[in-house]
Design a protein that fits this description.
The complex is a heterodimer of chains A (about 110) and B (about 110).
Chain A (H helix, E strand, L loop, with lengths): L9 E5 L4 E6 L7 E7 L6 E7 L4 E3 L3 E6 L4 E6 L8 E8 L7 E3 L3 E6 L1
Parallel strand pairs in A: 1-10
Antiparallel strand pairs in A: 2-7, 3-4, 3-8, 5-6, 6-7, 8-9, 8-10
Chain B lengths: L3 E4 L2 E4 L5 E7 L5 E8 L3 E10 L2 E4 L6 E7 L2 E6 L8 E8 L8 E2 L3 E5 L1
Parallel strand pairs in B: 2-11
Antiparallel strand pairs in B: 1-3, 3-8, 4-5, 4-9, 5-6, 7-8, 9-10, 9-11
Classes of the chains: A mainly beta (about 110), B mainly beta (about 110).
């Protein structure tokens, strides 16, 4: 629930602005990455994924960018809406553990109307 | 969350009592996972299953056991609950690994008093 957002970095944006959420991943051998959105009191929801043979992938209002050189992933949300307020997690596959996903701790996005 | 159900949604139990959480899926996915989510720690893998009767430990498996007697059900048991196991527990399913995303359930909020 609401406790998910405690202790997390927070990004505050104005409604209608673009949001950029960043994530540094740990394993240079990871080749699959996902962004999840978690609203208060709910489970994480899949937003978009990207494989390591791509640098960029676009969805509806969202774009994921992958920079393998510096092990960095970003999620861009265009025209941010109040409904985008949530905690956002990146995840990478863990080649060393049956391919299980490893999750980042998340960023809390707060959209001001 | 389509195709995955967790029960109960909320539970309060006393220290030292056994507790079982249930995850049920209708997607016929091979992989199932149990995570706990705590402020400051993000999602941490407790146990996972890669088939009926095939399970393995995650990073925080101490004090927990699991069972999977059929494809659709994955049970998480706290043999003797402790206050440190107060958390929100999420079940997730996946069609494969490593390049498949997870679908999460709505979570179980467990309080051990």
């Amino acid at each position: 629930g609401e406790s998910v957002g405690l202790h997390l970095p927070t990004l505050s944006v104005q409604e209608g602005d673009n949001s950029i959420i960043n994530c540094a991943y740990s394993n240079s051998a990871s080749d699959y990455f996902i962004w999840y959105k978690q609203e208060s009191g709910k489970g994480p929801q899949f937003i978009i994924d990207i494989r390591s043979n791509m640098d960029k992938r676009q969805g509806q209002r969202v774009t994921v960018l992958l920079n393998k050189t510096v092990k960095h992933l970003s999620l861009q949300i265009a025209a941010t809406q109040p409904g985008d307020s949530a905690v956002y997690f990146c995840a990478e596959n863990n080649r060393g553990s049956q391919g299980n996903l490893i999750f980042g701790k998340g960023t809390k996005l707060s959209v001001k109307p | 969350d389509a195709g995955i159900t967790q029960s109960p949604r909320h539970k309060v139990t006393e220290t030292g009592t056994p507790v079982t959480l249930r995850c049920h899926q209708t997607e016929n996915h091979r992989y199932m996972y149990w995570y706990r989510q705590d402020p400051g720690h993000g999602l941490r893998l407790i146990h996972y299953s890669y088939g009926v009767k095939d399970t393995d430990k995650g990073e925080v498996s101490d004090g927990y056991s699991v069972s999977r007697s059929k494809t659709e059900d994955f049970l998480l048991t706290l043999e003797s609950a402790t206050s440190s196991q107060t958390s929100v527990y999420f079940c997730a399913i996946s069609a494969g690994t490593p390049n498949y995303g997870y679908t999460f359930g709505s979570g179980t909020r467990l309080t051990v008093v």
